[in-house]
Amino acid sequence: MRIVVKVGTSTLAYPTGCPDIRHMEILVKTLSDLKNAGHEIVLVSSGAIGMGVGRLSLKGRPEDMPTKQAAASVGQCELMYMYDKLFGEYNHIVGQILLTGDDFTNENRKNNFENTILRLIEFGAIPVVNENDTIATDEISVGENDTLAALVACSVDADLLILLSDIDGLYTKDPHKYSDAKLIPLVMELTPEIQELAEGEGSGLGTGGMITKLHAAEIAMRHGFDMVIANGARPRRLYNIVEGESVGTRFLGREKKPGKETAL
Ligand code: GLU
Questions:
Q1: What are the Cα distances from residue 86, in Å, to 122, 145, 208?
Q2: Please, what is the end-to-end C-alpha distance for the chain in angstroms?
């Protein structure tokens, strides 16, 4: 299977922006093992801004663009250093790909990026994708990595997209507020009722939330592959997800149509 795994800042870093070494180690070990088992892995990783906040000892997620971009510049190095080191322990090679929204709308740039990522996969490397936050202004950015991961999954014609977040999946109510909230294991269709469940903001250092995850699900389902939302605090469950077991919330892709589409 060709699997795109997106991991959010809340899984990779503590609220201070320091890397969560335990999560990162288990995540990389599990992905390395899945790769050894024959799966092709693409990792879409957030955490650049968050880890930059940690490295530069900033007080919180920056509001202004230059500080955000400077933090991303520092944090992206930290991220790739960690991935290179950890995947290297299992003899896997990583390649960094930084994209903006433009790279999906401009046909030429899209072709270039797709050629690169497909060649990396062919070489057996693990592409590590993020938004190019140092140059992406609001007008040209995708804006968050849930949608970015779905677009990347379309580009590589993935079989499965997994979004690892700080929540177990989609609930019938906000589980932070209501103790009787129930996890929804399977979504076959994005009805208005399902869309209504996606209220609330993401965590402190990241940008996602359930709204962006449902947007990603819409792209995945339309393109014909499944998407799963699961908790990044338990990366070993990736094995169960790949086996098709019920973990988190699975959004069923509709029957695959031939040919690709631009999904923005
Ligand atoms: N590209 C951002 C970062 O690396 C993350 C965006 C997101 O959390 O969705 O910090």
A1: 21, 22, 25
A2: 24
pTM above 0.90, yes or no: yes
Question: Residues with Cβ within 6 A of ligand 1?
Answer: 8-9, 46-50, 72, 130-131, 133, 144-145, 206-208
Mean pLDDT within 204-228: 85
Binding site for ATP: what residues are annotated?
Answer: 6, 165-166, 207-213
Q: Which percentage of the chain shows pLDDT scores above 70?
A: 92
CA of 103 to the centre of ligand 1 (A): 17
List, in order, residues 6 or more apart from 153 with CB less than 8 Å away.
4, 42, 161, 219, 220, 223, 225
Rounded distance from Cα 180 to ligand 1 centre (Å): 31
**CB 189 within 8 Å of CB 208:** no
Question: Does residue 230 contact residue 247 with C-beta atoms inside 8 Å?
Answer: yes
Question: Domains of the chain, with CATH numbers?
Answer: 2-251 (3.40.1160.10)
For residues 100-115, give the mean pLDDT: 95
Largest CA distance in the chain: 50
Q: How far, in Å, is the centroid of ligand 1 from the Cα of 190? A: 25
pLDDT above 90 coverage of the chain, percent: 80
Distance between CA 61 and CA 102 in Å, rounded? 25
